[in-house]
Amino acid sequence: MLPFFFSAYILSACWLTKGNCISYDELKELKTEFAINLYQHVSEAENRTNLVVSPASVAVSLELLQLGAQGNTFTELQDALGYNIHDQSVQDFLHTVYEGETDSSQGTVVQLACSFFVDAGVQLSPIFTARAVRWANSSLQQSNFTDPNRTAAQIQEWITGNLGDGDVRGMPLESAGSPLSQVALVSTMYFKSTWQKKFSFTDTQMLPFTTAEGSTLKVPTMHHTAEVNYGQFQTAALEGFSVVELPYLGEKLSMFLVLPSHKRTALSQIESHLSAKTITLWANGLKRTKMDIFLPRFSIQSLFDLKTVFSALGIRDAFDPITANFKGISGQDSLYISEAIHKAEIEITEDGTKASGATAMVLLKRSRTPIFKADRPFTFFLRQANTGSVFFIGRVTNPS
To answer: How many domains does the chain have?
Structure first.
């Protein structure tokens, strides 16, 4: 069992506008598309390294910012997410998502929490305050931003309290004490669960893994034989890959593993075809199959400065002291996002996971009982089936 934790740390400020109704299925697709867009922008900067990111946590931060944004600042946030947080249909959908993301059952713990740390000198809008504290298990806390050490300690304490034993060491909070900082938005997500069918520790052995660079090393590799959802696919360029779904207890959440069929195929060639539609196609196209699963143990920790990523997603005004419009948080004109930081951790073992954290496809026919052997770089994502919400997504290029 093990660790994922995400904390998106945003210094900022936030207001309201109206939009058009949107269907449940459309929202499922938009949530997934945001996760893929976020991952692809993050992975471009990280190139071939291991990484993990929590789209669900990042989305909550942007949703909270929407509550207080106005003008073009709001429009950029809406365009990045794909939906207007003030639409009733969107709120109903997200309530379902976050109800599942703050519920614990059948050995699974999923906790999503957000908090505004506000300088004592900032007068918040009563409307914003009322909406913010009702959003996704949110809270509002007064802080003294002129005392950097005290502010950082307060935020660290809150993160630790919401992540259980999640490790927050190394989280850069120093900028929370900047003289220009008046509002900090912190969101966390903690996930811990057990596989529906555990891997046996006695079956784990040292097996070869070929890294992205082409070198081979031996890593602890778990194994079991089980009935799982499995499928083989091709991209339009005829690059083959396989997808296997490993469910957690209760089967509301599952981890998808995406593996190129050949070691010569770069993982990036498969990842470039990721989209909400392809993920839906995979989920619907997988067939129940008894097979041998070989999966290396792995543990990944990633820390990102999201300002560059948000800029690539079209969120620019929010970081500009002149153009940022967060008058919905406060009537003050000086509020803008000075930091956007994301940290995620995940560890996969025999027991399960603990994390504090359109190209046409063709299903290929199987000619024999397949073996899914993750002995080369692969992509993974943990998904909530009924809402399509991606809790976290990442890749393993070197398990050691």
So the answer is: 2
User: Do residues 313 and 372 both lie within one domain?
Assistant: no
| Number of Cα atoms under 13 Å in the Cβ half of residue 61 | 28
15 and 88, same structural domain? yes
Domain containing residue 312: CATH number: 3.30.497.10
Angle at which helix 71-81 crosses helix 55-68, to 10 degrees, equals 150
The pLDDT tens digits of the residues spanning 29-44 come to 999 999 999 999 988 8
What phi, psi does 271 have (nearest 5°)? -65, -30
Quote the crossing angle between the two packed helices 24-46 and 71-81, to the nearest 10°: 90
Is it the case that residue 306 has pLDDT exceeding 60?
yes
* Residues 222/297, Cβ–Cβ less than 8 Å: yes
The model carries a pTM of 0.84
Q: b or e along 256-291 (b: 16 or more beta carbons within 10 Å of the residue's beta carbon)? A: bbbbbbeeebebbebbebbbbbbbebbbebbeebeb
Helix (H) or strand (E) holding 246: strand 240-247
